[in-house]
Write a structure and sequence with these properties.
- This protein is α+β, with helices and mostly antiparallel strands.
- About 35% of the residues lie in helices and about 20% in strands.
- It folds into three domains: about 100 residues, no CATH class; about 190 residues, no CATH class; about 60 residues, no CATH class.
- The strands form six sheets. Strands 13-14-15-16 form a four-stranded antiparallel sheet, with no helix packed on it. A three-stranded mixed sheet has the order 6-8-7. A three-stranded antiparallel sheet has the order 10-11-12, with no helix packed on it.
- The protein is flat, with a radius of gyration of 24 Å.
- It starts with a helix and ends with a strand.
- The structure holds zinc ion (ZN) (2 copies).
- The site of one zinc ion (ZN) has 8 residues, from helix 4.
């Protein structure tokens, strides 16, 4: 996104600085007010798209050059403005976007629960979304980028705001969703819906289908679920943003069109046993074309899908997984992800304990539990 903006800015500058007869230049210079500092623009005008409202905003040269870029809206954010926020991972948020940013873990987890329940309600006629074998955590951008780089993950989702990691544990799949802190509320909701859709794919597709399905199609499906979820909330801005996102290389548009023409059930059938590995723009009706061997009976599944009882927190600290990376290993303990020297509350039974992670090796983690007189080491089972 930054690169696209830089390129746009370059051409804009070329136009503004080389073309003295550019028709809008004088008008803009006299009438325009910089959206960042509020002063009249007398020199060069920068037109920058606000990535939240998708409107073009006019910014003066001084603001463009002196303020850091808000990672949400892409506009220079006034560091003197009350409410301006600088995050520990170097991102900055303008005052407006800081107001709706999801920053705290508890808030993020609550939103995730609401999104998951909302998905279940919205699609109750068709399917359910995994619940008991999914854990969720919030990470900053540095941490998230590291997760993208980790070797050994089954699948990398290129959505830059979240990632779903899949682990096999005694032939059962477990998922850990990491969502980036600082996202505006509705971006966070959409990202959450997207990542839960990856867990649905993990649970409902046969191994063969997972292998053959194109990644763009999987991402397109996840974006469709997020799109329909935002539609159920009446959030047109977020829907527009999902459609503008180019990273599914057009699959999202084909998924939306197919859903409108044939319904969501046909989409789910195609995901599980479609004859093609992605949706074709030339023949939308092929979404109804299923592999003959799959077209009757339930789809082949890797594992049991409906676990009736919600999973309660373990009664002790349990090391569930290690995402090994020499520079930044991560340990998943109960429902919480830790890097080395990180401290967080972990759910144990019906209470929380404060845990500090002292060290991580490929198969064990060393911990200090608040109030305990000895450090302890947990090993992978
Ligand atoms: Zn902003
Ligand atoms: Zn994805």
């Amino acid at each position: 996104m930054i690169r696209i903006r830089a390129a746009t800015m370059f051409w804009l500058k070329v136009v503004l600085l080389t073309s003295s007869f550019w028709p809008f230049r004088l008008v803009a210079a006299e009438a325009d007010v910089c959206v960042v500092c509020g002063r009249s623009i007398v020199d060069v005008l920068y037109s920058i798209e606000d990535k939240v409202t998708l409107e073009k905003r006019h910014v003066c040269k001084a603001c463009e050059q002196s303020y850091p870029e808000c990672f949400v809206c892409g506009l220079p954010s006034n560091t003197n403005c009350v409410g301006f926020m600088s995050l520990p991972d170097q991102r900055v948020l303008c005052a407006r976007d800081a107001r709706t940013a999801v920053l705290r873990e508890e808030e993020g987890l609550r939103i995730c629960r609401e999104v998951r329940d909302g998905l279940d309600r919205l699609f109750s006629r068709f399917t359910t979304f995994p619940e008991t074998n999914v854990t969720v955590g919030l990470v900053d951008r540095v941490h998230l980028l590291d997760l993208f780089k980790l070797a050994g993950n089954d699948y990398h989702c290129p959505n830059v705001w979240g990632i779903t990691q899949t682990k096999t544990n005694h032939r059962e799949l477990e998922y850990h969703i990491s969502l980036m802190t600082g996202l505006p509320f509705s971006w966070f909701q959409a990202t959450c819906a997207h990542e839960y859709s990856h867990t649905w794919v993990g649970e409902h597709l046969s191994r063969a289908r997972k292998a053959s399905l194109s990644r763009d199609a999987e991402e397109g499906f996840c974006e469709l679920v997020a799109f329909l979820f935002m539609e159920s909330l009446g959030n047109e801005a977020q829907k527009a943003m999902i459609l503008r996102n180019a990273y599914t290389r057009g699959q999202i548009d084909l998924f939306v069109a197919a859903q409108r023409s044939y319904g969501f059930n046909e989409i789910l059938d195609w995901m599980q046993s479609g004859a093609d590995d992605q949706l074709a723009s030339t023949d939308p009706g092929r979404v109804r074309k299923l592999e003959p061997r799959h077209s009757t009976g339930p789809p082949a599944m890797d594992l049991s899908v409906n676990r009736a009882a919600p999973r309660r927190a373990p009664d002790a600290l349990v090391l569930k997984a290690i995402f090994w990376d020499q520079k930044r290993p991560l340990a998943l303990i109960n429902d919480q992800t830790f890097g080395v020297n990180e401290e967080a509350k972990v759910r144990v039974g019906t209470t929380n304990v404060l845990v500090r992670c002292l060290g991580i090796s490929p198969d064990a983690v060393k911990l200090r539990v608040s109030g305990a007189d000895q450090d302890q080491t947990l090993r992978l089972k």
